[in-house]
Specification:
Distance between the termini: 21 Å
Helix content: 40-55%
Strand content: 15-25%
Number of domains: 2
CATH architecture of the largest domain: 2-Layer Sandwich
Radius of gyration: 20 Å
CATH class of the largest domain: Alpha Beta
Structural class: alpha/beta
Oligomer: single chain
Low-confidence stretches: none
């Protein structure tokens, strides 16, 4: 089964062709990140306009790259939630028109479910159930992946997402936007104990997270130094911050893994590219005897192949939508369309 997959939830426009949920025939991505850098973050209206400009051309490019024709497409999958509402709408409307014109099924895919499916592409042996840490610019979740389409949130951030904090702190440190990569590189060789930063524990919800206090502590530390004309050691500061974020994510993930007893842990999303988090998860899984699944860096960010992969399993589970499919800025990952 060949699925044309569309992803446009933020600042990447992506169109992919995926066969049987695991084989990527083509994945074409156009990023508008350079346009947003001058603003220090994604401008939703500009992102939406960029999606409109490139999405049709990307679809043609994907077909050409895969060497197939429109008639060989069996279904169309699209991210319908969550994301920047204008951006998501562009992809949804494009996908609806393609599915209608070709007379093939339209499959709605939750963006975070798509991120989880990135590991199905990278690791052909991975099958549910497993515990998955989902961390990106807008999401910080610990998910019980019971089956390909049955999922339960075990823990979530109470406020900011981990990726949003990386971007904010990197910008204040003068490392630019997006901040995850530059901050990670700046942390290499730094002393992760140079600065004492808060770690949050929520008494009645041990798997829930909170990053607003950590972000505020970092901002106060940086601003106070600036006001006094003091220079902070960037490498040590970045390393201390990365360690604090990892200490919020990794122990909770492993606690959930021990509770479920699957022996399998996965991590996905843009923040899954962070070297400190990957290193700490590897050590924790080795200690607990769990098998760890991590996507390659190219599949950590938003892409179309992950939507095509998850779309295949949503299709098998009966996931279909009509021309009345709408976009949603927020939607619970546990809800199947």
């Amino acid at each position: 089964m060949i699925i044309l997959a569309v992803e446009s939830s933020c600042d990447e426009t992506a169109v992919a062709l995926v066969k049987d949920g695991r084989e990527v025939l083509a994945d074409c991505i156009a990023s508008s990140v350079e346009m947003h850098k001058i603003y220090g973050g994604v401008v939703p209206e500009l992102a939406s306009r960029k999606h409109i400009e490139v999405i049709s051309t990307l679809a043609d490019e994907a077909l050409a790259k895969a060497g197939i024709t429109r008639k060989e497409i069996d279904a169309v999958a699209v991210t319908y939630a969550p994301g920047l509402i204008g951006a998501v709408l562009v992809g949804v409307n494009f996908a609806k028109s393609v599915a209608f014109s070709l007379g093939v099924p339209l499959i709605p895919v939750h963006h975070v479910r798509g991120h989880i499916a990135a590991n199905y592409i990278a690791h052909p042996d991975l099958e549910p159930p497993f515990v998955c840490l989902c961390v990106s610019g807008g999401t910080s979740l610990i998910v019980d992946v019971k089956s390909y389409t049955e999922m339960e949130i075990l823990g979530a951030t109470r406020d900011d997402a981990a990726g949003e904090c990386f971007d904010k702190i990197a910008r204040v440190m003068g490392l630019g936007y997006p901040g995850g990569g530059p901050l990670d590189r700046a942390s290499q060789g730094g002393d992760d104990k140079a600065f004492t930063l808060p770690r949050v524990h929520i008494h009645d919800a041990p798997l829930d997270m909170s990053f607003s206090g950590l972000k505020t502590a970092m901002l106060n530390l940086i601003h106070n130094a600036q006001q006094k004309g003091e220079d902070l050691p960037v490498s040590d500061l970045a390393a201390s911050f990365s360690a604090a974020v990892s200490d919020e994510l990794v122990p909770r993930t492993m606690f959930a893994a021990r509770q479920k007893g699957y022996g399998k842990v996965a991590v996905v999303g843009g923040v899954a590219a962070n070297s400190r988090i990957r290193r700490d998860l590897e050590a924790a899984c080795e200690k607990d005897g769990c098998k760890l699944y991590m996507p390659p860096l190219k599949l950590c960010g938003d892409n179309g192949s992950m939507i095509g992969s998850q779309g295949y399993y949503e299709y098998l589970a009966g996931g279909r939508a009509g021309t009345d499919l709408n976009a949603f800025a927020n939607r619970d990952i546990s809800l199947q369309y």
